[in-house]
């Protein structure tokens, strides 16, 4: 197809409009798949299946059931149309955390034939304008580190990088290695809680807890943690790696409804590799761990150790935010 003329953006009011759930779910799903086919995860494909299933649902009761979860489907955002075809999409997902109203920009996609004409920028600016009008305190987004064009766009719009997070996955059966001599793995106890908390807050910053499905109340020791887990039906297991009397790290397993269960790893940069070589060979014996495991961890840290014990690198995301 011939290049789209740059005059495309002169009629913004006609082309850009709010996302309409009844009308846009199916074409938006098709556009997202077209734009991200090579990088879609299993959960990403399930997400698109939900979008398409909801688009096909006719009864309001079916629709309500399919869209019940907090952010399982894009119920708000903006689209860009050209000649009746949806060629641009942006989802705007609200969060509320500790008195703060936060918006997450997601699913920013532009049809390949219409790129480099400012559509992504126009959609993002509209999301920022709406957030400002509604007095949202922060707007966040995540962009793949290997997408320099998108990184440059968001930098130009005032977004600042807040962290780089890498995702690693492994099948428990594929974990490798043996526990090194002189080290051991035990169940996490209350005496480890203070150090575990400090490490967790360093590796999973408090400013980003609104997005992490890591709930500190669910992993607390004692009656408070037990009561929370009982009533919230959160399933967790926790282990510590030790060398003599030295605590090397703490690993948390958390069951999920996603494709993979979550792992949360608490260790310092000085001890994390020793902890990984110790604790990962141990958990491959755990009969509880039967599903794929996903680990979110600060980018650039412990990469050699994670690869050595069997993890596969998926991607690195840059988390960015701006005050609208």
Describe this structure in words.
The chain is of the alpha+beta class. It has 2 domains: 6-136, Gcn5-related N-acetyltransferase (GNAT) (Aminopeptidase, 3-Layer(aba) Sandwich), CATH 3.40.630.30; 167-322, 3-Layer(aba) Sandwich (Aminopeptidase), CATH 3.40.630. Helix content is 34%, strand content 30%. It has helices spanning 12-15, 21-36, 42-56, 60-66, 119-133, 148-156, 193-203, 216-219, 222-232, 272-283, 303-308; strands at residues 16-18, 77-82, 85-97, 100-110, 138-144, 160-170, 183-187, 236-243, 246-254, 261-266, 293-298, 312-322. The chain has a 12-stranded mixed sheet. Strand 9 and strand 10 (261-266) form a beta hairpin. The longest helix is centred in the N-terminal third of the chain and has 16 residues, at 21-36. The radius of gyration is 22 Å and the shape is elongated. The two termini are 36 Å apart. 28% of the residues are buried. Mean pLDDT is 90; it is low at 1-7 and 58-71.
CATH topology of the largest domain: Aminopeptidase
- Please state roughly what percent of the residues sit in beta strands, choosing from under 5%, 5-15%, 15-25%, 25-35%, 35-45% or over 45%: 25-35%
Order of helices and strands: HEHHHEEEHEHEEHHHEEEHEHE
Relevant CATH superfamily of the largest domain: Gcn5-related N-acetyltransferase (GNAT)
- State the end-to-end CA separation: 36 Å
Alpha-carbon Rg, integer: 22 Å
Helix share, percent: 25-40%
Total strand count, please?
12
Shape: elongated
Please count the helical segments. 11
Class based on secondary structure composition and strand pairing? alpha+beta
Spatial arrangement of strands, main beta sheet: 1-2-3-4-5-12-6-11-10-9-8-7
**What is the mean predicted local confidence, pLDDT?**
90
CATH architecture of the largest domain: 3-Layer(aba) Sandwich
Number of domains: 2
Low-confidence stretches: 1-7, 58-71
């Amino acid at each position: 197809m011939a290049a789209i003329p740059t005059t495309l953006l002169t009629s913004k009011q006609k082309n850009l409009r709010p996302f309409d759930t009844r009308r846009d779910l199916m074409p938006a799903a098709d556009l997202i798949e077209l734009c991200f086919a090579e990088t879609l995860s299993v959960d990403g494909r399930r997400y698109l299946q939900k979008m398409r299933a909801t688009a096909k649902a006719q009864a309001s009761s079916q629709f309500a059931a399919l869209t019940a979860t907090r952010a399982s489907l894009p119920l708000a955002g903006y689209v860009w149309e050209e000649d009746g075809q949806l060629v641009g999409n942006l989802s705007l997902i609200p969060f509320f955390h500790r008195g703060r109203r936060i918006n997450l920009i997601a699913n920013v996609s532009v049809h390949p034939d219409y790129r480099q004409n400012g559509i992504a920028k126009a959609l993002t600016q509209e999301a920022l304008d709406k957030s400002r009008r509604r007095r949202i305190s922060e707007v966040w987004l995540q962009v793949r580190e290997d997408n320099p064009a998108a990184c440059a766009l968001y930098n130009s719009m005032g977004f600042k990088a807040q962290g780089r997070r890498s995702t690693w996955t492994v099948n428990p059966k594929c974990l490798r290695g043996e526990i090194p001599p002189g080290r051991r793995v035990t169940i996490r106890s209350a005496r480890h809680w203070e150090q575990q908390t400090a490490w967790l807050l360093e590796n999973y910053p408090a400013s980003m807890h609104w997005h992490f499905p890591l709930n500190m109340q669910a992993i607390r020791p004692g009656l408070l943690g037990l009561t929370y887990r009982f009533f919230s039906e959160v399933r967790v297991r926790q282990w510590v790696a030790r060398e003599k009397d030295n605590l090397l790290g703490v690993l948390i397993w958390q069951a999920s409804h996603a494709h993979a269960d979550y792992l949360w790893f608490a260790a310092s940069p000085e001890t994390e590799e020793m902890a990984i070589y110790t604790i990962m060979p141990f958990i491959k014996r755990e009969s509880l761990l039967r599903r794929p495991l996903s680990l979110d961890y600060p980018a650039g840290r412990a990469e050699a150790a994670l690869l050595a014990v069997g993890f596969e690198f998926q991607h690195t995301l840059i988390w960015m935010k701006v005050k609208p």
